[in-house]
Amino acid sequence: MRLEENARKSLLALEVPEEAKTGAIRNLELWLSSPEFKPYCPQIEWLLSLGAWAGLLDRFCQILPFGTGGRRGPVGVGPNRMNLWTLGASVQGHCTYLRQNFPLEKEIRVALAFDVRCFQDKRGNYNPNLPNPSLGISSKDMAQYAARVYAANDIVASILPPESTRYLATPELSFTIRNMRAHGGLNISASHNPPDDNGGKFYDERGAQPVPPDDQIMADLVDQVKGISLISWQDGVRAGTIRYLEEHHHDDYLSVCCAQSLIPPPRQEAFKVVFTPLHGVGSQTVLEILQTKGFHVIPVAEQMAPDGQFPHVTKTPNPEVPESMDRAEAVAVANQAHLVLATDPDADRLGVLIPNDMGGWRFVNGNEVAAMATAFKLDMLAQSGRMPGSPLVIKTEVTTGLITRIARHYQVQILEDLLVGFKYVAEVLWKLESTGSFGDVVGTPADFLIASEESHGLLLTDKIRDKDAGAAALLFAELGLYLFRKNQTLLQYLKGLFEKFGYFKNAGVPISLPGVEGKSQMNRMMDALRKSPPVEICGQPVTGVKDFRDPLGKLGPLKGITDASSRNVLVFHLGPKGKIALRPSGTEPKAKIYLEVATPPRSPGIADGLWQEEMAQADAWLGKLSAEFLALALKTIGLTPEALKGK
Prior knowledge:
Blueprint: H1 5-12, H2 18-33, H3 41-50, H4 53-60, E1 70-74, H5 84-101, E2 109-114, H6 139-152, E3 156-159, H7 170-179, E4 184-188, E5 197-204, H8 214-223, H9 233-239, E6 242-244, H10 248-258, E7 272-276, H11 286-292, E8 296-299, H12 326-335, E9 339-343, E10 350-355, E11 361-364, H13 366-384, E12 392-396, H14 402-409, E13 413-418, H15 422-435, E14 437-438, E15 441-442, E16 448-453, E17 457-459, H16 469-485, H17 490-501, E18 504-512, H18 518-531, E19 536-537, E20 540-541, E21 544-547, H19 561-566, E22 570-573, E23 578-584, E24 590-598, H20 608-635, H21 641-645
Parallel strand pairs: 2-3, 2-4, 3-6, 7-8, 7-9, 12-13, 12-16
Antiparallel strand pairs: 1-5, 4-5, 9-10, 10-11, 14-15, 16-17, 18-24, 19-20, 21-22, 22-23, 23-24
Helix pairs in contact: 2-4, 5-6, 5-8, 7-10, 10-11, 10-16, 13-14, 13-16
């Protein structure tokens, strides 16, 4: 079906790259004429009647990118939205990938998980009076649809029974894939994204997301999909290609998390922990773990029920955002609690609030969470003589350097410059498992102690290959209890780390360049900084530039598009005083500046006032660094911070 001339002219008149306009017209004509997209046509025709050209362009300009782990984005109509078609095409491509990877297997098996999301069009993008096949579709619905695609391809899909009220957290899926010796997995979740988003994230037989070049191979196979095979649920169950997950996998996951305990359990002590899953699945993992270990847990009652609309959460269900824990803080105040813990909807990230010195509560950012967790685990293992033979700590390049100083103090191996994403942590563990080394690091997975990411992600055991809030929550509860028994506070502990190892101030500054042209602007910015990096920033000489795409660097030549996306990171070192990293999103027109300022450890005998002044100077310098580098980066594409705010 050819678009009416007025619609074609209106789309072609938009000031965006030609490729986006022609792609939108081509995809619109396909969706309006193909029988498989007929259910979506009433909404498309309504948008056309409104003349919503920018919105139509955004929905139809491309197929929702298959990133390094899968697809994620707003649910809705069109190929650039998450819906049953984009999910089905992804699963169909994954089936081909599995067949190619396991050609001799008689039975290929996958495990499926899903979170609490349900699309209700909270943004009001569609006509509520017209048919909309995406409206009301839940993560569970999408997972069951995916199971039907796997089953149609003669791949066994193991999923929770339809009548089950349980969910699988992201780390629980990673564990379950390994526990049942499956060949892969799929998680239907948008993690901590807004309520109207959803996604599908794929896992390999190691319980991890695939890394380059495997992720590129899978992405290419997804792009080649021409049709989606599908059978009914009943036929899949009868054929034995749709099966139900056994309950023991959940119990085994909880046991592995509980086994990460470092200190004796609570003994009827008055130590109280407030917990909220922010309406996500953490009530079925973290809460059970803490209660099993004997902690006095006070749930935030109004946020305990799984609900994909997140009705009682301020701003966003993301424990990286302090406001998301405002109700938990109120419960903590009312109950005179000692610690607040929160998890995101798929229970892989951990948020933390601790009492401050003024009777209130203090948000602990992701870098501080990582440093406190690392220091506590290393200290407990060292004290008890349980340190393994070749102990290993892992962090990403953009996570605080405080962890490096802590690790070196305890004389453990430190991998401090991984790319962002726990799939790279999983790759290290797999290499240790298969070869006994990873670069300069030697050992086995049993030597692994902790991995962390600045975005509130922790991993404490090699039995799981993705970030895990379950064991992380237990560790933080035990840290709080350990200090409570010594009549010390969590804030004193954090301050003590700064004094012993140096004060680290870390911050992340987002850059958003909206619109179709935003991605090309982001590419131009990175190209300019690569070709002509700054020689000084804020009066401080740039002592080194690290380009993760450098083919002569540690990572070698690029392995494909997905590898190029993950490695699109520039780091500018400012001597021992700090560093700046710039990392664009691989699929969206935005980037993040990661800033770090560091001081030496507190000098013996230095007055409190002078130490406070030294930390305040570090804070102030970080603010100046942030402003100057943002202006410098935007200048490469002819923008200013003021102009960016107006976009």
